[in-house]
Amino acid sequence: MGRLDGMTAMAPARNEPDLSFLLDHTSHVLRTQMSAALAEVGLTVRMHCVLVHALEEERTQIQLAELGDMDKTTMVVTVDALEKSGLAERRPSATDRRARIIAVTEEGARVAARSQEIVDRVHREALGALPKQEREVLLRALNRLAEGHLAVPSADGTARRARQQVK
Amino acid sequence: MGRLDGMTAMAPARNEPDLSFLLDHTSHVLRTQMSAALAEVGLTVRMHCVLVHALEEERTQIQLAELGDMDKTTMVVTVDALEKSGLAERRPSATDRRARIIAVTEEGARVAARSQEIVDRVHREALGALPKQEREVLLRALNRLAEGHLAVPSADGTARRARQQVK
DNA sequence: TATTGTTATACTCTATAACTATA
DNA sequence: TATAGTTATAGAGTATAACAATA
To answer: Which end of chain B, N or C, is surrounded by fewer C-beta atoms within 10 Å?
Structure first.
């Protein structure tokens, strides 16, 4: 699952708070824990995300892709995996014959209930390592950042070069 | 610079604190801001990381790779870039003729001073969006997590399959 | 025999392009 | 003309393997 790559110690040996390292490290490690925990029920993070959103209401692949911040081509692969596992099915939309509704199977609903418990448990275990008051302030502060100064990604430095024509 | 991919709303619509989303989102956005800011002085995050560590004392590529949590092959590419920009040079180690010391040039030291200011500024701007007390608790809590429950990555679910023989 | 640094390359991931079928 | 979903594939990133020089 890769490395942190350079974010380790952006502010080394100077006793400056290294927010980059802290956020990258904790999110990276939490993600490995989440992936490992969800693997126990045969899900990836993406599959869990799609299952849960598809259970809420009738949604098309594009709608699910937007909710999970995935590309529509990534969604194809994810739905393929869910279908192969028998957890969801593609059904034609009643109102738009181009679109497919992702219908969660009974088995899919059972797995989703378990996977949601797993997600909550992993989060609880992480937060449980903190004093209650510290935990609440942490969540409030992260929410404030996520909604404010760290709401939207900066213009993409890694912008792709103009793509070569395929044919 | 990619997406968050499924981490968006691990705990949707349930008013559960979604630590995965918060950490992934904030670290992702901060990273885009950092990359964009460092691009102003022609550096990547990795180049900055290597420069700063190489300035502290005489270090070989392998030592710098470990400090920055990079693969040694990634370090080759990073040092190539630093050399091409005239910011660092490979020098033979006096004690081990296999190893190369990464020596920062004068220009490299100037750039590193500026890039460190940029890193600190980006961090200050992010943290500045928070009330002072909240900021301090956030850093304390993240440190506690990074040193405790979220210290080391979980066994890698994405383990590579056995590699095919090359020749 | 082990390690440093290098090159070459295989693997994974993601996104772009192009296509089909609808709208 | 535009959009939903699909397929194919380009491109970037990263890690593995093999190698030369040296320990």
So the answer is: C
